Amino acid sequence: MSPVTVIVGTSIGGVRTAQGLRAAGYDGEVLLVGEETALPYDKPPLSKGLLAGTSSIEDLTLLTERAAREAGIRLLLGRAATGLDIGTNTVTLADGERLRYDDVVIATGARARPSPWGEPRGVHVVRTLGDAQRLAVDLRRGGPLVVVGAGFIGAEVAATARGLGAADVTMVDPAPVPLSRVLDPEVARWFAGLHAGHGVTTRFGVGVEGIDRARDGLVVRLADGARLPAATVVVGIGAVPQDGWLRSSGLRIDDGVVCDRYSRAVGTEHVHAVGDVARWPHPRAGELVRAEHWTNAVEQAACVAHNITRPRQPRAHAPVEYVWSDQYDHTIQLTGRTGGRLGHLTVPGPDPDRSFAVLYADAEGTFTGAVTVNWPRALVACRQAVGTEAPAAEVRDRVTAARPRTTTGARP
Amino acid sequence: MAVVKADLALCQGYANCVVAADDVFDIDDDGVVLVLRGEVPESERPRIVDAARTCPVSALEVADS
Ligand SMILES: Cc1cc2nc3c(=O)[nH]c(=O)nc-3n(C[C@H](O)[C@H](O)[C@H](O)COP(=O)(O)OP(=O)(O)OC[C@H]3O[C@@H](n4cnc5c(N)ncnc54)[C@H](O)[C@@H]3O)c2cc1C
């Protein structure tokens, strides 16, 4: 009997694991199971192109029925997993069916942290295709928009709404600056200016007390007594791993599925986790980390697919952290460790008004990571330098030297 | 030989391809991909296919020549 791999979760982590198994030459059965009924789709455009109306659902689709068939992937959509039994190697589905596996991959990702202020009509989170479609309808209806949370998703929604012509957009965050988890205050203030410069009213350093229903819409009550009328409110305050279905599995669950360095649930050999739901010991961080970024899910999926196919030569997952964000016409890219108490130096880019790189360093001056704005070439140099223990000053020189190779004829 | 193609209109400068295979992909100052080698030998195809698949907007394709 040929081996069976059951993958639970049909977004980027799950789909890439399934495809990666085939690319690695896995000759067993591959079952890809997900609770959503929509074909597997990608999430980054949900706060960008899909919301703006410039990308379609087809653009987001990660795997069609036909592509699944051709790759020998059995797609089971609209089937939520409710339990995992690692003694009998079975995944239980909501309809009672049990799927036996030789290897199982947990790729159930994360869900939006729900609004602590209730969810009256007009209050949105953005995590699924349905979320984004409902928000798009409300944004087109017009009226004031209040975005609670100035992380990546909140900032992108505010930028997209302005791009759609929303006249009255307010961004609220209890932190004194946006993106405070990944930027130092000085650089973060530049981002506050980016939003203000694009006509967004920013209310940083003040928390939300409540969201009330009013006669003709909503009112967001702030801690300083301000009351912001809103037709639409977007709550972008983070995500929580979807590990509830594993509660009785006996696996170690602690803000995600705790894994070893090979992305196997600790204490198991045939239970793997990828993407937003996985927490594993990152060699450079020296502690367990959980990443909520697209590229991490893709790289971890390739690693898990390899480890299932070649269990005797497992590969450790030790990625260079990377995330991008598109806001207005700005491409923002982060790599490695940034922000916090790290020191930083700023390097002006080719167009100093629009592009720059901020390099971060630890107390010894060793480069740890960078934020780049509208300067992908600098990002590449920085990403390649993460983990090499290079002094930040040396990375700065590499970044300034990062001039395009002239490859006449390479561009049509 | 395998042919490496880039859709310059789709490219967003996310640069995953350059990090995956900087002997085949680079990026210019405008943040658009440069294909350094438009053709790669069959022996290199799997690595370049993997690199192309890291593109978040599927702007890269490795085709038969
Ligand atoms: C709006 C938005 C914009 C983003 N933009 C960027 C960006 O610009 N750059 C970047 O790097 N990252 C971005 N991200 C993050 C990136 O999309 C995630 O890191 C990525 O989606 C993680 O993939 P995943 O497969 O691990 O999990 P998820 O995408 O969360 O998918 C999990 C899947 O599992 C399914 N599932 C959950 N529980 C069960 C169950 N019990 N049974 C069956 N199926 C289940 C879910 O329905 C879902 O389909 C963005 C995310 C969002 C939401």
Automatic annotation (TrEMBL), chain A:
Q: Where are the transmembrane segments?
A: none
Q: Which residues does the UniProt record annotate as the domain FAD/NAD(P)-binding?
A: 6-301
Q: Which InterPro entries match?
A: FAD-oxidoreductase/Apoptosis, FAD/NAD-bd_sf, FAD/NAD-binding_dom, FAD/NAD-linked_Rdtase_dimer_sf, Reductase_C
| UniProt biased composition (Low complexity) | 401-412
Tell me where on the tree of life, at the top rank, the source sits: Bacteria
Instruction: List residues of the Reductase C-terminal domain.
Output: 322-395
Q: For this UniProt record, give its keywords in alphabetical order, as a comma-separated list.
A: FAD, Flavoprotein, Oxidoreductase
Note down the stretches annotated as region Disordered: 390-412
Q: Name one Pfam family in it.
A: Reductase_C
Keyword DNA-binding tagged:
no
Gene Ontology molecular function, alphabetical: oxidoreductase activity, acting on NAD(P)H
GO CC: one term? cytoplasm
Which cofactors does it use?
A: FAD
PANTHER family linked to this entry: APOPTOSIS-INDUCING FACTOR 1, RIESKE DOMAIN-CONTAINING PROTEIN-RELATED
User: What name has this protein been given in UniProt?
Assistant: Pyridine nucleotide-disulfide oxidoreductase
TrEMBL record, chain B:
At the top level of its lineage, which domain of life is listed? Bacteria
InterPro entries reported for this sequence: Fe-S_cluster_ET (IPR051269)
Provide the cofactor list for this protein.
Answer: [3Fe-4S] cluster
Q: What is the lineage of its organism?
A: Bacteria, Bacillati, Actinomycetota, Actinomycetes, Pseudonocardiales
Per UniProt, which keywords does this protein have?
A: 3Fe-4S, Electron transport, Iron, Iron-sulfur, Metal-binding, Transport
What organism is this sequence from? Prauserella flavalba
Which Pfam families does the annotation name?
Answer: Fer4_15
Name of the featured protein = Ferredoxin
Write one Gene Ontology MF term: 3 iron, 4 sulfur cluster binding
